[in-house]
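[[Sequence with tokens]]
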Amino acid sequence: MSGLLEMIVPAEAGQLKALRDATRDTLLAAGVAEALCERLVLAVGEAAMNVVQHGYRGAPGEITLEILNNPGELLFRLHDRAPPVNPSTLRGRALDDLRPGGLGLRFIRELMDRVDYLPPAEGNGNLLEMRKRWRPRQGEESPQMNANERE
């Protein structure tokens, strides 16, 4: 597994554009098709915003993002030191509940192939791992790949 990106940003809404931009640049440089790249940037941005809003709740803190490339799979890790969250209590809002906000978890789960909340090695905070199968733009088509992820 090769590391594509590791960055730390303050847990502030205004700092998340830099995180999204770095994610986009990294994925495009790795050969991820633009349409898939934008969906992955959305998922990472939603996860980071959840940390800011629901994890730190306005308190100062940091978010660490790692992007790793495994043959055929991208791994995104978001680590924070906010109070630990109980993953069994996390629920996305129903799509027919029409009001602003509250769809981040739904987007993350629908855009990624696997989402895991893990205990961080340091023992404090939260570690979110998100995985997505993919193939480079010039590569062969993967049999697991969703039709809307093909170029």
Observations:
- The chain has one domain: 2-139.
- Residues 29 and 134 are 14 Å apart (CA to CA).
- The beta strands are 2-10, 62-70, 73-80, 114-118, 126-133.
